[in-house]
Amino acid sequence: MDAFDSKIIKVIMNNSRVKWADLAVEIGLSAPATAERVNRLVEQGVIKSFGALIDAEKVGSELTAFVAVSLERPEHRSPFLQLINDLDEVQECHHIAGEDDYLLKVRCRNTKDLDRVISYHIKSLSGVIRTKTTIVMDTSKETFQIPINQDKFSSQ
Predict the structure, then answer these.
(1) How many CB atoms lie under 10 A from the CB of residue 62?
(2) What are phi and psi for residue 135, nearest 5 degrees?
(3) SS3 for 101?
(4) Is the pLDDT of residue 156 over 60?
(5) Model pLDDT for residues 59-70, shown as the tens digit of each residue
(6) Which residue in 19, 125, 38, 45 sits closest to 78, CA to CA?
(7) Is residue 8 within 8 Å of residue 41, measured between CB atoms?
(8) Model confidence at 152: pLDDT above 90
(9) Percentage above 90 pLDDT, the chain
(10) Mean pLDDT throughout 125-141?
(11) What backbone phi and psi angles, to 5 degrees, belong to 3?
C-alpha cells in the first residue's frame, strides 16, 4: 500500500458514496486507476464493506446497550458466536481481556426488547454464565473514522 491508498481510505471513510471521478481528483489519479485501487483494497480486505451511518432512533432502534458476556468454557465460543452473528440487534461483538469474555453493542427498540434479546437469546444459550448490561443514555460521538498509521503506507 502507498500514499494513494492512504488517501483513498481517508476519503472513503468520510464518504463511501464518493464518485470515482471526484475521488480521483481528490487523490490525484485517473478515475479508472482510482477504481482499480479501491477494488484492490476491497479484495485485500482492507476495505471490509461500504455502508451508511444510520440514525438508529429514526428507524425505531431507540435503545443502545453494551452487554458483557462470560462463557463457562472455551468450547461454548462457537455456538455463542453463531448466535451473535444471527442476531440483527447485535451490531458489534468484541472478544475482550479481563473478567468477561465478550462485549456486545446491542441496538433495539426499548428495554422490553433488550430483555428479549438478553434473556431469551443470549442467556438461554448453553455455556453463558453471566451477562452485565450497561444502557446508553446519550451518544456524543459515533463514527466510522479510524486512525490511519502512515507507517503502513510506503511513500510515493
Answers:
(1) 14
(2) -90, 135
(3) coil
(4) no
(5) 999 999 999 999
(6) 125
(7) yes
(8) no
(9) 83
(10) 96
(11) -60, -30
Contact criterion met (CB below 8 Å) for 27 and 41 = no
Mean pLDDT over residues 97-113, rounded?
97
47 CB-side CA count, 13 A = 22
- pLDDT of residue 71 exceeding 70: yes
Query: SS3 of 131, please?
Result: strand
pLDDT at 155: 61
Q: Could you say which DSSP state residue 154 is in?
A: B
Q: Which three cell numbers stand for residue 156?
A: 510515493
Of residues 3, 17, 2, 5, the one with CA closest to residue 144: 17
Nearest alpha-carbon partner for 107 in 138, 58, 63: 63
Category of 127 on φ-ψ map: left (φ > 0), alpha (ψ -120 to 50) or beta = left
Q: What is the dihedral of CA 29, 7, 44, 102, to 10 degrees?
A: -160
pTM of the model: 0.85
Half-sphere exposure of residue 57: CA atoms within 13 angstroms, side-chain side: 4
